[in-house]
Amino acid sequence: MMTTLEELRTSLPEVANDIKLNLQSVLGAGVLSAGQRFGVAVAAAIASRNPALQGAVLQEARSQVDAKVIEDAQAAAVLMAMNNIYYRFRHMIGKESYVQKPARLRMNRIARPATSKADFELFSLAVSAINGCEACVRAHEKSVLEAGLTEDHVQEAVRIAATIHAAAVALELDVA
Question: Can you list the domains of the chain with their CATH numbers?
Answer without folding.
Answer: 5-171 (1.20.1290.10)
